[in-house]
## 1
Amino acid sequence: MTGDSRQPQNEYVEAAVQRLLTEHTHIAEQGISVSWRDQRLLLCGEVASQQRREEILRLVTEYFPDVALSVDIGVLSAREPAEAEELS
Amino acid sequence: MIRIAAVGDVHMDKDVVGRYRPALERLPERADVLLLAGDLTRYGTVSEAQCVADEFGDLGVPVIAVLGNHDYHCDQVSQVVRVLTDAGITVLEGTSTVLTINGIRLGVAGAKGFGGGFAGRCASEFGEPEMKAFVHTTQSIADRLGQALREMECDVRVALTHYSPVPDTLAGEPLEIYPFLGSYLLGQAIDSAPTALAVHGHAHAGSERGMTPGGVHVRNVAHPVIKQAYSIYHLTVDAPSAA
């Protein structure tokens, strides 16, 4: 027996969250994957700052208050590269 | 040898100003030029462009950029380009620039690019006007990129795009969205000239390394892919022949 994640309306939620993250004027994140995992919506990806991670969580919670979230969003490193690649 | 630093998809706004600067301080010791592979901003506003200018202006090496799809969102492209240009950043769109580095002429041709997919699984200029316009847009951008690459008088050529010219560097992205991530037409344009390296961004979940059918090295430098402030590529170049 599968959970709600297989029900078609949940696929619409998945699509709606993905579009919200891209099209909302304060987010514009296209790099977050959205998928169902054991009846929870998993947000996965990397963003440029902790502030953007928090904005995403706040927005999704605001628009979809009844959806349980699992979050695996990291903040990208901006460290200096250790080495160069030689191409010839 | 030419040392090329590159990063794409930096998506600058006030919250990330200053994040790249520590890694950029030693850039002139490590690279001859910095390429920015589009999606410099989140929505393409003038204030975000100013953040790009603050972060990537006055680095001590030439900075060459193309715009990405995010940079078009607010329909302020000309203002964004002006802010970047005023900060000394060269912005390419179907155009090229040639730098002389230690006597070697490095030519960089750039264009944002667009989608359409890859050979055997691509969109065609057929059917509804919207579909024809979509493919025609990519074809026309690719034509200008190819012409810019071929017409440069230089010792080594580099192509700079936002969208991908090959599927190799999309590995990791869902197959279903490949047509929105790039086009083989860009690869064909790159292969129409003796290009040494093609750099792009856009595919955050893609992978770094690829090659065109013509054997040109392709690197996806989207920040989420390289996971560092920039990557550096060393291009070995034959000494220019005496005039």
## 2
Amino acid sequence: MAELVYDETGRLLFTKEMKEEYTLLMPQMLPIHFGMMARLLEREGFRVETLNTSGKSIVDAGQKYVHNDTCYPALLVIGQLIDAIQSGKYDVHKVGLLITQTGGGCRASNYIHLLRKALIKAGLEFVPVVSVNLSGLEKNPGFRLSIPFLRKAVFAMMYGDIIVQTANQVRPYEVTPGQTDHTIEDCMSRLLEGMDRGDGLSYKSMCRNFKWIVQAFKDIPVQGAPKVRVGVVGEIYIKYSPLGNNNLEEFLLSEGAEPVVPGLTDFIIFKIYNRDVDVDLYGGLWLKQKICRIFENYVKKCQKAMIAAIQAGGFRAPGTFDDLHRLIQGYLGDGNKMGEGWLLTAEMLELIHSGTPNIVCTQPFGCLPNHIVGKGMIRKLKDDYPNSNIVAIDYDPGATKINQENRIKLMLANARALSNESAPALQPDRVPMEV
Amino acid sequence: MSLRIGIDIGSTTVKVVVLDKDNKLLFRSYERHFSKTRERACETLHSIENRFRGQAVKLVITGSAGLGVAKAAGIDFVQEVYATAAAVRQYYPDTDAVIELGGEDAKIIFFGGALEERMNGSCAGGTGAFIDQMATLMNVTVNELDALSLKHEKIYPIASRCGVFAKSDIQPILNQGGRKEDVAASIFQAVVDQTVAGLTQGRELKGKIVFLGGPLHFLYGLRERFVDTLKLDGAHAVFPEDGDCFAGIGAALCAGEYAQRPFEAFLKLLEESVDAKTTVDTMPPLFAGKEEYAAFLARHNANRPPQTDIRTYSGPAWLGIDAGSTTTKMTLINAGGGLLYTYYHSNQGNPVAIVLEQLREIYRLCGDRISIQGAAVTGYGEDLIKNAFQCDLGLVETVAHYNAAAHFNPDVDFIIDIGGQDMKCFKIRNGAVDSIMLNEACSSGCGSFIETFAKALGYNISDFSKLGLFSPRPVNLGSRCTVFMNSSVKQAQKDGASVEDISAGLSISIVKNAVYKVIRAASADDLGQHIVVQGGTFLNDAVLRAFEQELGREVTRPTIAGLMGAFGAALAARNLHLERSALLDAAALDAFSHSAKPVTCGLCTNHCSLTVNQFDGGRKFISGNRCSRPLGQEKTQLPDLMQYKYKKLRSLQGEGEGDGSRGRIGIPFGLNMYENLPFWFTFFTKLNFEVVLSPESSRKLYLKGQRTIPSDTVCYPAKLLHGHVEALVEAGVDAIWYPCMSYNNDEGIGDNHYNCPVVAYYPELLAANVPSLKQTRFLDPYVGLWRHKDFSKRMVKYMAEQFSIPAKETKEAVKAAYTAYEFYMDGIQETGQEYIDYARAHDLPIIVVCGRPYHIDPEINHGINDLITGFGFVLVTEDALSHLEGYAPRKVLNQWTFQSRMYNAARYVCTQEDMQVIQLVSFGCGTDAITTDELRDILEQGGKLYTQLKIDDISNLGAVKIRVRSLMAAMDARSLSVEKESDQRKLS
């Protein structure tokens, strides 16, 4: 059995030995992106499991071990991890936990610390916690991510985004239920196999992959009239995680709407851009800025290729990061970076501009940045775009699904009334074909 | 066009409406459904079956509880706000806005231009249900409450955000003798404020407003409050005749677009769905059977104090009174703790009358045989009762409860008391009360919540809770604030849970609330080995059982669980060893009279809402005061660093050393300006601007900006900013300066030096939501003060662009500003040290208040500093001490400057014998969810007590007093045990 080794601050390390023996558990957020990440880690020799658990016991564990006034995502992420450890499914002395750490002025940067506190409370202080971050925060001898791996990870994110973006436009109209999800599985397998061979890890081969991914979804037979499109924005975990948002996308689909969920790429660029713009706002090393820009520009270039591929396939494509940044002028400053920062408002603007004025703005109850960039901007958006139809939904352990759904239904009723009034403006760019 | 039927199934009522082809109302009904929604709707349809049988109709369901019914029955559903809008458009086409209050929903619909609809968020709680709860609290019917409110003279401020807050505001007013009429109107005003503040979100309510929904239909007092508040005249306030079933009418109007069927076909669909059950989240039963219950009862009933017959006993006796929030409890004991007399009853909002009546009864029973040698009082009404009847001693509840618990179990190490309105738990360490946990406003509700629910479902409380004992499948209702539970119950009802299951579920919820929300325990061992449970709510066997199940351990519930406060007070009275009690004797009681009058104190800007109680013989008792000035005494003032800072900051306005020639620059006095004002004041005056500081915060100022607050869950300090900037616009300043600051100063004591997101970006929120800011120049650039040279460079550029100020001038102003800021901070540290020296010279204990710089605002802290110094402490703040400790790693990410100061101050306090910490936490502060646990850890590891005071927009100093007094009692007990120890050491 692996020996428990601590660093000089008393933090339990994830050792090389553990890498051989331990299973790393990872909370779920974006099923496709994280699923690919997990499989990439496996190929690096880790035993990894993404937790797709759901149910009351997760919230219960969260409430038991995390300060109840902490934001809901912390409660869920930590609850999901502890619930899994306590489920009896794993040898508790042979599991480690993976959690991301972003840094930044929001409470979210504290998740890893709250997780460690929770483990102590649960008598599981011997379970190592591994921070996944790009800031060089906590280091572990048994968990070193190589540069080639990071490259794979970036490409995995891009592939995740293009799959989600195109699949979302097909799923509401698919003739054979489940075919879209089936296609997603196929795409993921093919991509991962390719990556193993070293394929798909250069800009050029990524573009090639984009092409066939888009084609795969284009080939799915669709039917029916265009549905009301509903944008989903918000605090990142609640926005994406079905566990966090009570299966929001599924609910929207069942209500006959087409969910439009902006991807992760903008968020990644946003986080790099923040470091870049901090130098402009407050001063700092130009070299740091230069390095940020190189990285930033590379991801931007990838994003442009993705958008081009989506458009080439006849799908509706999201705007570029620069488009979003242009839209936010006059709303929020570049320095607004905590949580989702100005990007959240920019996403709402982009949705409105691209003919999706119906938006669900999701956030954990009492989310600090969303006071400003979410709820705080809806008034101004309504003033500037009278047809915008935004509903802010709070998520927490006490909020009931019925209450949330009722409010979303109100937004949908409004959306339908709006689309009757101004039908032409709300036509999607791509009209599904009758089969 | 055919007949159209709308069925509106709300949280408490079912409304059925039938319209003919000309939109004429053929039938309407409004009935309570007592959670049997489908059955109620079917019954109503049956009652009109003869009339409509065979006709083709279009039927649509709406309403918050209608969704499930519609789904199960396969009938079309329209969202209720949408339906309401349709009805209003039909009947009042020139309407500007609709305000609709339902059982649990509050809605505003704005017409004119783009249609906007708002519903209350998950926090705002119910309105109809809230009024029901408040009526229960005041022991009147809802109609009586309405009648009372129409005779009000004054309005008390009552928290408007969430129903549960309001309870804790109302209770002290009632207990201190406030008039019921005034309280009733204040309750309605709270509903109005809640609706206006929570739902308008920056859009003004004006023009013609239609009022809908049950409460607004039936309650004239509520109507009056709305009309008054919105300043509407008759033509602009419309109360439609069928305003209670407008959503139903709207649904019927919308039905035109949906499927047509024969009447009986719809009825059949509904009837057949009655038995359809969806899954409900359930838990194991409380008891496996009657035998298990019997054993449980036998075990608990063994904890019984000896009973002594008051009719035969002769000798000395001691009286204990617990004037609790909803109930008054009294016990009379003999020297051995034997019970001579007990009393437990709802105080019906007037504890004085109850105690008077009971004292007469006690004197009658005592005759000449028994002499009362001491009387003590505890509880919310302590001061009032003590003064009214001249009790010998008043003691804080926690100590009273500890006395009583220790009587039954000397080893007790954890006490939990759940009463009607409040929940108290605390640990016992070294014979003293430690780590008090009170339910903060949002999770209270406790016992009276079950009662309200029982009533709503048509049961009395004891029958209702007994129903749950043998429920096979208690519903899992979650463990949050009770207002949320309302919706959980609604959902369970929708899913077909039985009343038994709901009853058991509620009992379990209350327990979970206590364990996970208030105590935040991870396991039973966190609480203690010897747990004593008390309070009326634990007399409910379902709650007690749920508690034992949740902890997985047996606890002690004395048979007098509901009387423990009074019992503990009696024990304390006994321990005074008096010859004779000063308690009013029988003769004095005959002459006793009491009247209460509300007054607003005008002696300082606090404007305390005082209640002047007059007793016979010119005796007088004033309550609601924060200082001693309204009592006719001079304010005695011990050194108070909060006051020092506040005075310093308020003086920073005007032209300073400049000439003001560049214009008037407004600075809102809120949030981080409490830190940075010395910097900006010098910066701008040096540049010859006149600095106009916004007025001192007040409730009035808050209300001025209230309608532009977009997020009702943000902290009160942030909400105040709306009023501050509006006031500056009115003052006609040339520009308002309120920069965005992601980063604070770097004091080298944390891992980073951020501001919290709200502090950092609130200026941008104001710019987007306060319309009047368009009339002025609102300057909110991003600045960072911690890199002096970079800041200077950027300011030079900015001031040149904005005001064409030469670089040299700006540079000098920046330099001077940094110096001024340092000078201010040095002043705090030096003065803090002086105060500490003063305390030590005069042998006074020191309280270090840890909070944010803006917590010194009297409107935010509600005069807590006066209260603390009033108890004989010298007060210093965290920023005076944080520099005395260096950086140290923490178990949390220590990334906010203001918060880092608290950690350091706490570490310093641990090294000082005569200091204790009180942490101030604003309600809704997200970062303090992290700091509180960490601060507690630091202090407890350092052998210190941890005391937290949560503060909100409403000043309820009751809870604050309990904590401060318990802290004092704990400090006394500690020093006593230290003395004992050293005595013992000397002996050995």
## 3
Amino acid sequence: MSATAAVIYNYDGSFEGLLCCVFESYDKKEIPLAIIGPDYRQSMLLAGKDILTDPMKAKRVQSSIPKKISYEVYEFVCQAFLTCFPEKELYILLFLRQAYKCGPQIMNRLTDEIVYPLYKAVQHLQKESHLLKGFIRFSVANQVLISEIGPKNFVLPLLKQHFMERYPEERFLIYDKTHQMGLLYQPYQSRIVPIDALEMPEFDETEIQFRQLWKLFYDTIEIKGRHNEKCRMTQMPKRYWDYMTEFQSAPTLRRKIPNGPEKLPVKYK
Amino acid sequence: MDIFAKLKILSDAAKYDAACTSSGVDKKSVRGGIGSASACGICHTFAGDGRCVSLLKVLFTNICIYDCKYCVNRRSAETEKAAFTPKELADLAIQFYRRNYIEGLFLSSGVVRSPDYTCEQMIETLRILREEYKFNGYIHAKAIPGADSLLIARLGMLADRMSVNIEMPSQHSLQLLAPDKTKHSILTPMSYIKGRIEENCHDLVKYRHAPKFAPAGQSTQMIIGASPETDRQILNLTEGLYRSYNLKRVFFSAYMPVMEDQFLPSLDTKPPLWREHRLYQADWLLRFYGFAAKELLDEENENFHPYVDPKCNWALHHMEFFPMDVNRAPFEDLLRVPGIGVRSAHRIIAARRSGILSFDGLKKLGVVMKRAQYFISCRGRKLPGLDMSRQVVLRAMMSAREAKLYGTDLIGGRQLSLFEPNSVLEVGAKELIACLPLPL
């Protein structure tokens, strides 16, 4: 039996790091009070135990999940790690400890006090990534499709497959402003890399024309006699609007290139 | 005419078509091409009226040789006319698609010169998309009634979904309002498409790479409120269409008055939106909840209840069916409980495998307890302290908006009794009554 110990784990914020926390918890037969990533360290008063990320330990935990529990649980945990749920690390640890005991059945325990919040968080992630598959807007500059998003969850890994299958011959970049990460793709490979800031280039005449055409279509397709602001906002929350072409005002749509081709915001290799 | 003017005219002319879904088929892009599709459908934006926009919905042209009275594009209408060229439209669709504005193309058309000619123009547009751009995204094409079946067949090989609009819920109304169309001219292409889809299914069993005919199936649409049919007639027709033509969807479109005519509702009539809403609710019950049309409406109740949705209405009239034990009831029975949907029913089945469910747990599974509490029991017991009086239960079945409407009618001195037949038409259905043209 492991008891809750008055200890806090500090980990490096990576998924491997979290798996090492799971390892540590079993190794020392203890359950930490919290697991803290590098971004929140200062705010804690209690001194914590630094958990070093050891690829060997991480690998052992990683391969044991599909083997001893199920692949479904492994995928669930991977996705749970991408969510914006504040205590996801501790909940994932508690979830895994429970799952090692009861097996794949854990996924049915939807009313459990550990499983339920994680399940909700994963659903939120999946919903957000589904919406963004539609709401992402690309702009074309120098034959590269560029887009910026501001999601709450870290959705890029979930968007990767979809956009690769959609535009296999294009080169594209999706920049996640919240997490300062970018999804880069060129035929036929992709990478997710940290990007500090992205300055949108100015766009040429053709690009501006298509933006205006789209805005025109969007404004025309509404049946004015059925206007329903509330319904629109329920389906498409306002936080997405800032990034969508159809809600940009005319001056932004009109931004022009002064002369010649300009450089891409990030180096594209 | 430049592309801006054309797009404005031809999307404006297409906006009354209800279907804008991109669902029903899973596809990946081919190497060297562009475009994929997802079976669950992806909405790319929502218009100011709250409707999902997932396809570039346009007419090929709004020039039309027909003169259907309810239609904005009829021959006698004095709107500006325009037509795309196939190349122009294909380019526009691809450029929109690259920027992720859309999931594909919805192509309909007025009938220019002849149905065959119109169909050929549409085919050419889709051919450019599919063959020249290797576009593998979603295409919804409207079959033009009266076109040669070989052309319809070709169109179906290029599109993912086909549709033929049934327009009016009865032959009588069709005759009156669309004198150039007949029931026969609409149902012929519909059954032809059905036949081709079935044939194609057999081919696919034999040859895995057989070309697919409208893999996302067939849909249709009818206009609600331009003619006097009751909800019951419409719902029965809908059920019949699902059964006999294997349709994927039947869409309803609340009638927006576009012109003055002795046979049509007057121009100041508001579109019967609540009626359309109720019909969609019932449509869902038919497709996913195992309800039959005759369970929802009968001779005594020709129309849906204005304040209570069809499922709650059914439950209130079948109290002998309840309370239902959530720990034992089979899936089909759970679906009958107001407040339990398809997803939460699945979750209940999964969750009760690993433990007995409590009322508190049900909330976590996504059950709307405000409604469900009156119809369920856990471990043989109902929720303690539950007030089962008629008015309280009735209130709980209403959404905030319905309750507000109901409240106003109460102040007006008329109280609605749910358990009296035909009370529906007497109260609150002003909108509906206004839509019934009396001369008919």
## 4
Amino acid sequence: MPVIGTIFYVFLGIVAIGSALGMLINRNAIYAALFLVLNFATIAVLYLALGAPFIALTQIIVYAGAIMVLFLFVITLLGAEKLPGYEPIKGHRLVAIGMALVFLVELALFYFVRNQTTGPIPFLSAEFGSPKNIGVVMFTEYLLPFEVVAFILLSATVGAIMLTKPDRKVPVNLPQQQD
Amino acid sequence: MPLSYFLGLSAIMFTIGVLGVILRRNALVIFMSLELMFNAANLVFVTYASYYQVLTGQIFVFFIMAVAAAEVAVGLALMVAIFRTKHSIDIDQMSSLKG
């Protein structure tokens, strides 16, 4: 691999991990959301490099465009940027970091102990992840899951509307007690 | 670039997402950490899709994105509903079943 390619991937990796850490550490929820948008955009560039242009643009439109705007909207609507800083459970943070370290050690062990060798990612044709190919596969082989996802989206929309509807006064029609 | 670069990046991002769910108390930030974990899984899907040259991985990423969008819509609606009764989105105060 040429040097410029290595620099490209290392830079993208640093930006992705740095923005994820920024989301984790930042106390202000709005800054956390903006860091997450940066992370999504970086991952979209990685998708492009992996030969998935359709998925990359869907990532930008759906995640960075729609979902994160919804997040920002709700954060500003609730005025919930910051919570008072106290820790209700003692040692909570240390235990969490210990568990994360255990998880990372497990992953590293798996990486070094597995008895499988992997080669480099093969060179892909430009047609591989094109919208045409994805459409053909999605509407022939995966038609039923596509319809199921459509129903899930519909029910989520109805559920969100029902949940945020302001509760109406329930008319109380108790029978009056007669003397 | 070797396969392990993408897998390692995805593992680190997933771990940061798990840390976010465990460490943070703001329920909205916990949702964002969930999205980060979804993203790490999606990266593995796309990586293996191009490694084995099978398009199924990319289709699954598309489905995961749709389901994540639905989940976020319902989850944020729940947050708004909880905020109405409790006036806080601190996850430690959501410990009672009845508002």
